[in-house]
Amino acid sequence: MSASKLSIVKFAPKGAESFHDAVKREVEAYFSTGNISKLYNSKMVWKTVAMLCMYFVPYALIVSGLASFSSIFFYAMWVVMGMGIAGIGSSVMHDSNHGAYSNNKTVNTILGGVLNILGGYDRNWRIQHNILHHTYTNVDGLDEDIDAGILLRMSPNARRIGLHKYQHLYAWFLYGIMNIYWVTVKDYKAIFKYHKNGLLKKEKISLTRALLELSAYKVLYFGYTFVLPGLFSGMTWGQVTLGFIIMQMVAGLLLACIFQLAHVMDTSDYSKPKDDKKMEHSWAVHQLYNTANFAPNNKLLSWYIGGLNYQIEHHLFPHICHVHYPNLSKIVSRVAKEHNVPYNVQPTFRKALRTHALMLKHLGQAA
Questions:
Q1: Whole domain around residue 280: which residue ranges?
Q2: Average pLDDT value for residue range 170-188
């Protein structure tokens, strides 16, 4: 994958009176008629506070030694921190790095930068997610979200090995350790790859500065999440290490279940460029062919995962804050039906999880 490769993959023209034009027009009318801001509101502010507390309150209890009275309580605090990572990532950082939290760039930069103290690197994230995933959803070789290495086959266009026939069983463990790989190795590999392919230029940063930034963030992260608890929690280094691993595995599993249920599903068509490097559908239609919503009536789940169960609306309107997705879904589903475009929805989280597992099983079987 390189910048030059990105430039030669083209989506089909949207055409006159296209689905994309129609849905944008209807959504714009919704906001203008109701005089509604496309960005955050008071509910979003309180959610931000709640998500940050979900991570930092148990951390304070751990590092202060107040959680050491019971090993069960101690490990429970690490579990809650893992839930906090997933909640902040999907509900706060995600909107901010899309520029969808506030019209103030400083606010978006600060809240998007929270990723840096959660073990990630916001510059890498914007390249992988905003540029590659959102543009080339489910396109093999371009969308890194369906590239999990040799152990998982998430696309029918990817190479299959014999081990994949068991992936529906072991994928959940790999999802769990995903975060450990991310905070230790993945960001460094990504920096060198994005530099080689000319994608770091989109973040207006040199390789040297990116490496220095990333290394500083990693030192800070491991210093406060691992070293400080080891020194001051009152628990042994072995217990702290186990707690740290538990936190990462909880976060990794939750994040994977949020994002994979939206794309690695039996309704996705995984279309690929033709010989002339052109895609079959226009960009917006391609999104609906490769994206699915799930559990639209589960308000608690939607609150916790930042409306990402409305993944269709997010892909079409990533610069709109997720608090508006439930209302926008009514517009998008109607316009999709009018233009004979699929609008895929799994009714419950359990059904979506089962469908994803069956899709993994299908992808793992011999052709």
A1: 3-364
A2: 95
Query: Tokens for 161?
Result: 């090995």
Q: Coil, strand or helix: which one is 13?
A: coil
Q: How many CB atoms lie within 10 A of CB 242?
A: 16
Number of domains in the chain: 1
pLDDT at 14 over 90: no
Helices 187-196 and 207-222 cross at an angle (nearest 10°) of 170
Query: Could you tell me the two tokens for 146?
Result: 């369906």
Burial of 31 from C-beta contacts in 10 A (0-12 / 13-18 / 19+): middle
* pLDDT recorded at residue 6: 61
Phi-psi region of 58 (alpha: psi -120 to 50; beta: other; left: phi over 0): alpha
Give the model's pLDDT for residue 3: 47
Element at 346 (helix H, strand E): strand 344-346
CB 289 within 8 A of CB 342: yes
**Tokens of residue 205, six digits:** 């940063």
Cβ atoms of residues 121 and 217 within 8 Å: yes
Q: pTM for the whole thing?
A: 0.93
Instruction: Provide the token pair at 152.
Output: 């998982």
Structure-block tokens of residue 112: 């998007």
The per-residue pLDDT for 9 is: 84
Q: What is the DSSP string of 291-307?
A: -EEE-TT-HHHHHHTTT
pLDDT in tens, 295-319: 999 999 999 999 999 999 999 999 9
Are residues 130 and 323 in contact, defined by beta-carbon separation less than 8 angstroms? no
- Cβ neighbours around 328 below 10 Å, total: 24
